[in-house]
DNA replication and repair protein RecF (Eupransor demetentiae), 372 residues
Amino acid sequence: MELKSLSLEHFRNYDELNLDFQSGVNVFLGQNAQGKTNLLESIYALALTRSHRTANDKELIEWQQSSARIAGRVQNRFGTIPLSLEFSKRGKHARVNHLDQSRLSEYIGQLNVILFAPEDLNLVKGAPSTRRRFIDMEFGQMNISYLHNTSRYRQILKDRNAYLKELQAKRTDDKVLLEVLTEQLVEFGAKVLYARQNFVQQLEKAAQPLHAEISDQSESLQLRYRSTVDFAPDASLAEILTAYANALQRQEQREIMQGTSLVGPHRDDLQFLVNDKDVAVYGSQGQQRTAALALKLAEIDLMHEETGEYPVLLLDDVLSELDANRQTHLLLAIQDKVQTFLTAPSLSEVARQLIMEPKVFQVKAGTVSVES
């Protein structure tokens, strides 16, 4: 899968921009605050209908403009598909092959991307919500059913929490609606748990050899999905359904007292073990970064395995955060495999030696020119 071209209208600091890309590595060079990250953000948003930097879509629209538009041509094994996404006060408007998409969940997956930014190096030691979001965003691109189930789960969770607050405030004592909402939460939540558990197992299998290679065979990596629902790693969907229902039943009075749902995928976490120790607690910064890098590289192969297409890789100023050894492993892993978009103030010596014939764009104050 490749992004052949990109067009922007009133997106961030770009009034109007049209770019064509090559199959290999495309490099955006420029100093800070010139618009390099905005370009990667636009590609990410074109793929996932949202920014990775803000939850407020209004921030994506150029100052004093009413809307922003991103368009691109995606080439996959079936042919070339035009995509477009518009942000306005009315919301988001997505098109595939010039046809309106009534649901954004049906649009996602047309362009698969993996973003690797400096903050992703904190994936291991960051907040649990960061790791949950990582699982949801990456697996959601690969599996439309998972995307649907997480969306339904979040809506039911919101409704259930609102009703728990009513029970907490004693504005009602009718538990019939709570039972209905709990039953629905279990139905979709169990599907999310089952899919996450399997995804983490697949991710671990793909990441382990990469991690061993980066650490010169001195360390082994394990991933563990830590759930608030007690179920075995090989549990069936039916077993998880039963375990989840029992867990909610045991917590019902506490949930009413606190006015919120205490059990489920929204409370879960992903744990990284290096040589059987929790690397977030006991690992060095180098070990944490190696684990994060192995995870990101594993995503590339896993997404190819799940979808039949390699994703587009977005590297946002990440090389400056990696030492020469990790830079080498990253660049060798992507060589001749995935189309890559890379931002940097300048290319390191390692990058200049390993990146074969990049297409270089100079970015300055919202203007982009191709380097000859």
